[in-house]
Write a structure and sequence with these properties.
Elements lengths: L12 E5 L4 H12 L3 E6 L6 H7 L1 H5 L3 E5 L18 E4 L10 H20 L6 E5 L2 H4 L9 E2 L6 H7 L10 H23 L4 E7 L1 E3 L5 H5 L3 H7 L4 H5 L3 E5 H13 L6 E5 L2 E3 L1 H11 L18 E2 L2 H11 L7 H14 L1 H4 L2 H5 L14
Parallel strand pairs: 1-2, 1-4, 2-3, 4-5, 5-7, 6-12, 7-10, 8-9
Antiparallel strand pairs: 9-11
Helix pairs in contact: 1-11, 4-7, 6-7, 9-14, 11-13, 12-14
């Protein structure tokens, strides 16, 4: 793998937006481990301090990792200074508001993408741009949906539902979020077509993401639904009787592969991992935690029928990590629980804090 031709040389600077997030932190870590420098954007420097104090401390101490404060990612010139000297961009940050009002959320989310794209156009050093989309931008994760997702497939249901007349009930928050991701990715490809930038553009479309948490906050959001099932709370699975689940390390790997690989351009990379449901996870938990009392299998579980072409992302995994296929679901579940259980004493019961009977898993699992 050391002889692979690369878009940018080792030591080049890559900007990772939303670097404190579950996915952003893993992308930064993976790039740093491969010899690149990383500039991570944050909205709150104090809340981001854990990165330079623990996980990325060695890189920060040697000047290979640095923060850049971006208080408003949707501001017109938000990234103009941050982008200077950058060779590649992983745009992971997104507006995670569950505000159901589409007139507030959708324009701001689109602006968050166009702002950094316009900044990149002014910086001749930029060679590649990779955007973190979402499976929710492509289609609904719903039983009975048999969509075959392509580069041109979008979640029209969410868009239409979000734009329905007011009142904007709180329950429409996730549909509005999905619609905002639809609009943002469409804006990305419109920009690529109309502006013909000097850098390559690709999008990564992950499903529900689990795996190793690098910070206790990640345990409370992304992947918390694994812990709640371990505790016997089925709220998540009552809402979603079937999902695709992918390991965060696979998502990070596809991002850095898309950045580095000169053969990847104008690609929409579907990173979905494994079809699964609560009963699949319970089987894994019974095997790995035989002394823990788990609930019985759930009767309402099913399997998703949506599909896509995964050949390109799987080929990239093999090419850039020498990994055959997605990381095993069992490994992802066990790693997720390991770090979740390990961190429990730091912040109390996740089940009580994140998944009450009135809350929804959807408020958490898309926080990239």
């Amino acid at each position: 793998m050391t002889d692979l031709k690369k878009n940018i040389p080792k030591g080049a600077l890559v900007i990772v937006t939303g670097v404190t997030g579950f996915v952003g932190s893993h992308i930064a870590k993976a790039l740093l481990e491969r010899g690149y420098r990383v500039r991570g954007t944050v909205r709150d420097v104090e809340k981001a301090a854990w990165l330079v104090k623990s996980v990325l401390k060695d890189y920060a101490d040697t000047g290979r990792f640095e923060f850049c404060y971006i208080p408003d990612i949707a501001a017109t010139k938000a990234y103009d200074e941050a982008i200077q000297g950058v060779s590649a961009i992983a745009h992971v940050a997104s507006i995670l508001s569950m505000d159901p009002d589409p007139t507030k959320v959708i324009p701001a989310t689109v602006a968050g993408v166009t702002s950094i794209l316009n900044a990149a156009m002014k910086e001749p050093s930029v060679k590649s741009f990779v955007y973190t989309s979402s499976l929710g931008a492509a289609t609904m994760l719903a039983p009975g949906n048999e969509a075959y997702v392509t580069k041109g497939t979008y979640n029209d249901f969410a868009t239409k539902a979000s734009l329905a007349p007011p009142p904007y009930e709180a329950g429409r928050g996730m549909l509005t979020y999905m619609a905002s991701k639809v609009a943002a990715e469409k804006a990305l490809w419109k920009f690529a077509e109309q502006q013909r930038p000097h850098f390559t553009i690709s999008s990564v479309v992950p499903s529900v993401i689990i795996g190793e948490a690098l910070n206790k906050v990640h345990n409370e959001g992304d992947g918390a639904w694994v812990r709640t099932l371990y505790d016997g709370n089925t709220v998540f699975w009552n809402s979603m009787p079937a999902i695709f689940a992918v390991d965060v390390k696979d998502v990070a790997a596809i991002h850095f592969a898309a950045i580095l690989d000169p053969e990847v351009a104008n690609a929409r990379l579907h990173v979905w991992g494994h079809k699964c449901n609560a009963n699949d996870l319970l089987t894994i938990m019974r095997k790995n935690y035989p002394h823990h009392e788990l609930i019985d299998d759930l009767a309402n579980q099913t399997v998703l029928s949506i599909s896509a072409d995964f050949s390109e992302p799987l080929a990239l995994l093999k090419k850039w990590t020498d990994q055959n296929g997605w990381r095993p679901l069992e490994d992802s579940v066990v790693e997720n629980l390991h770090y979740n259980l390990k961190g429990l004493d730091l912040y109390g019961s996740i089940s009580k804090r994140r998944f009450s009977e009135t809350s929804s898993f959807l408020d958490d699992h898309y926080s990239y």
